[in-house]
Write a structure and sequence with these properties.
Order of helices and strands: HHHEHHEHHEHHEHEHEHEHEH
Oligomer: single chain
Strand content: 5-15%
Number of strands: 8
Number of domains: 1
Organism: Marinoscillum luteum
Protein name: Glycoside hydrolase family 2 TIM barrel-domain containing protein
CATH topology: TIM Barrel
Structural class: alpha/beta
Number of helices: 14
Pfam family, one: Glyco_hydro_2_C
Strand order of the largest sheet: 5-4-3-2-1-8-7-6
Shape: globular
Keywords: Hydrolase, Signal
CATH superfamily: Glycosidases
InterPro entries: GH, Glyco_hydro_2_cat
């Protein structure tokens, strides 16, 4: 037994006396107002968790039949047949994990139905030997959205229908924060011990779309909510832009494991790895691979495997998201670009590049 020092014992007794002298009502109020919040994982805890997974490799997955997260998860457009087929293709080239975006509005329409669809997705993915990383919030692309049928893709335009979450609405209606807290906690509690889930990616690219530090309050809130739930899976928010100093500092200090995005060439990517190694925690690259920016499977994936860094490229099957087109170079005619920006498969299951697929399989199956 470890004995307390006299000063520590005196302090502990004082606290116990104060608590004992308070009324049950006051004690109850104190516990309600100050929920238990777990600490950020230590290096040892994080590395012990990572050991059980081996090398994670996969893609950012949205079924080709959905233009955005709402079309993926709303009851009327949830397409389990396409999900099953396309995850089968991923498993066929040795992928074992997917990063998948959620959206609070789909939950708001029908919380129980939403979680049921998540369960159907997880069961299907697990059947293919694929684990899942779920993403809650997102600052990228369109800042407004609506429930119901989603817009058709704009011809030749990258991610024309992708939507932020919560986007502009959090600034127009600050009270939305209460609903977002209910959403995050409901979903996370429901799946808190689900071994099919790798990680909760709490906020994709905070500060994007010109928000900058305006995203800090929501970022700090979701980490707080997540720690109050205390799931068995780690919490993280990936760093992606070195100029967002305050956000980066907070994300790295509060993430249980290190996640990051890099769409640059191998030299720049290697430099980022060297910078993040100092934290001594497992690293997961949750977005990479943009062919016209020299971020390719051939150059980046072997490096990630060599460092045991999880590798999630953007895009699996070319579809309504139009991510075969580059971010800022739409093709008005809708003609297929000579060099795809993202994605691996066409909707019929054929591949963009057999050479690339052979390279991926060589890394994942050997």
């Amino acid at each position: 037994m470890i004995k307390s020092k006299p000063s520590n014992l005196l302090f502990l007794l004082t606290i116990l006396v104060v608590f004992a002298c308070s009324t049950p009502k006051e004690q109850s109020k104190e516990l309600i107002e100050k929920p238990v919040v777990r600490a950020v994982w230590s290096k040892e805890q994080a590395n012990q968790w990572y050991e059980k997974w081996g090398w994670l490799r996969g893609a950012n997955f949205n079924p080709s039949s959905a233009i955005n997260q709402l079309e993926t998860w709303q009851a009327e457009s949830f397409d389990l047949e396409t999900i099953d087929r396309e995850l089968g293709w991923a498993a066929g080239i040795g992928m074992n994990s997917m990063r998948v975006y959620l959206h609070h509005l789909a939950w708001e329409q029908d919380p129980e139905g939403f979680k049921n669809r998540m369960e159907q997705y997880l069961k299907t993915a697990d059947g293919h030997g694929i684990a899942t990383m779920f993403v809650f919030f997102d600052d990228c692309w369109n800042n407004t959205y609506a429930a119901g049928p989603q817009p058709e893709p704009k011809t030749g335009t990258h991610n024309s229908g992708w939507v932020q979450d919560p986007g502009q609405l959090i600034y127009d209606e600050p009270q939305l924060s209460e609903q977002l807290e209910a959403y995050v906690k409901d979903v996370m509690k429901h799946f808190a011990n689900d071994e099919r889930i790798v990680l909760w990616d709490v906020y994709n690219e905070p500060g994007n779309s010109g928000y900058g530090n305006r995203s800090m309050p929501l970022l700090t809130s979701i980490f707080q909510w997540g720690r109050e739930v205390n799931p068995s899976q780690p919490l993280s928010a990936g760093v992606w832009n070195s100029s967002l100093t305050d956000l980066n500092k907070y994300q790295l200090a509060n993430s249980d494991v290190i996640t990051y995005h890099n769409y640059e060439d191998s030299a720049h990517h290697a430099a980022m790895i060297d910078t993040l190694k100092q934290y001594g925690k497992p690293m997961l690259c949750t977005e990479y691979m943009a062919r016209t920016r020299n971020s390719t499977f051939a150059d980046i994936m072997p490096m990630l495997k060599a460092h045991n860094i999880a590798a999630y490229n953007w895009g699996l099957v070319a579809g309504k998201s139009n991510t075969i087109y580059a971010w800022d170079t739409p093709i008005a005619s809708g003609e297929e670009p000579e060099v795809w920006f993202h994605d691996i498969f066409r909707k019929d299951g054929s591949v963009y590049s057999q050479e690339e697929v052979d390279q991926i399989k060589d890394l994942t199956m050997n």
